[in-house]
Design goal:
- Strands 1, 2, 3, 4 and 5 form a five-stranded antiparallel sheet that branches.
- The relative contact order is 0.13.
- This protein has about 200 residues and is α+β, with helices and mostly antiparallel strands.
- It has one domain: Nuclear Transport Factor 2, Chain: A.
- β2 and β3 form a beta hairpin.
- It has four helices and five strands, in the order ααααβββββ.
Length: about 200
């Protein structure tokens, strides 16, 4: 009889402990999740990347990609590889090396002017199928040869990104899986593109 009473007592005690734990879980404050790239208070759903985070990362990447001098392009090219998806590292690395070699040989510099990363600006974030995040913007790139302005181009940049767990290869939580650049027509004919006398790769 005594063992049965002890068993019933143990079961009651366990039930009370579990009930208390459930009550505590129900009334405790909700956990706070810190999302890189989000500055303002907002509701963030799991697996949903805010547009602001995409814009900030893309602007950082483009600023590094098309702002360089002969003295900085090799270091920047090496750093840019940290943003590239692993499947594209070899191809992109070779292209960046060719561009750096050309810039050093011809003393070429580039300056990229982009609009601020504002939700109401000309930049757009879309979400194509396959889990991609696509960032589109326009900017003005100035090409200098030995500190002399040789060309002014209005360009349209399109970046395809994928979210990634932050690590040494993807420190900002994104990887670049695709990139395209094309020239935009200049509204003012007086600002028609002035091509460099050097052939660029």
């Amino acid at each position: 009889m005594r063992p049965l009473v002890a068993l019933i007592g143990a079961l009651l005690a366990a039930t009370l402990v579990l009930s208390g734990a459930l009550v505590w879980l129900a009334i405790r404050p909700a956990p706070v999740v810190v999302v890189p790239g989000v500055r303002d208070s907002q509701v963030v759903l799991p697996d949903e990347v805010p547009d602001s985070a995409v814009r900030n990362f893309a602007m950082l990447y483009l600023g590094l990609f098309d702002n360089y001098t002969p003295e900085t392009i090799e270091e920047r090219s090496t750093y840019l590889l940290r943003f590239i998806a692993p499947d594209s590292l070899k191809t992109v690395g070779e292209e960046l090396t060719r561009r750096a070699t050309f810039a050093v040989r011809t003393k070429e510099s580039a300056q990229l002017l982009l609009p601020p990363p504002s939700p109401t600006g000309p930049s757009r974030v879309t979400r194509p199928p396959g889990g991609l995040l696509r960032f589109t913007t326009t900017g003005e790139r100035r090409i200098y040869i030995a500190a002399e302005l040789k060309a002014t181009e209005r360009l349209r940049y399109v970046l395809d990104l994928k979210p990634a767990l932050p690590d040494e290869q993807a420190p900002y939580g994104f990887t670049v899986v695709g990139q395209s650049i094309r020239r935009e027509p200049v509204a003012d004919p007086g600002r028609a593109l002035k091509e460099s006398t050097h052939d660029r790769p």
